[in-house]
Amino acid sequence: MYQNQVQNEPTAAYWLSMIGGVLGLLGGLLLIVAGAVVGVFTFGFGFAAIGGLGFWITICSAVVIYAASKLKSNPLEHSKWGAIILVFSIIGCWSILDFIGGILALVYKPNLVGAQPQYGQPQQYGPPQQQAAYAQPQQTRVCPQCGRIVQANERFCPNCGTQQF
Predict the structure, then answer these.
(1) Are 57 and 26 in contact (CB under 8 A)?
(2) Is the entire prediction scored with pTM above 0.85?
(3) Mean pLDDT of 78-99
């Protein structure tokens, strides 16, 4: 819905957050499995510690993935989604990719469709260039047949058709 309202999309913020979120999701699932294996040998205590951490990382990574997808679909609310990505990357995922993606989303400046480009021609300093006050007069001559004024670059008179010299 909002995607067509900006000329530049927050592509780097989206991809870094998405990749970091997917890696955090995979790491969280791996910790859940490792906690289950350790829990078998420690009568459930290992699962509570390692598996609980895995659940927390999985939930935070899912929130980061959701916020990254909302950032791409609605880039005008980049501050909200960038803050969510940044907070959940700090408290849950511990991913540098999510952290950088959240910062990039926060500093993103959208260019609205139809607005002037962000970087245009540099401004000219100094006095403006002045045009010549007069133009070069064109060479003219008088047609010997009818007496009308004829431009110097014309071979025939436009009035009577007499060849000019």
Answers:
(1) no
(2) no
(3) 86
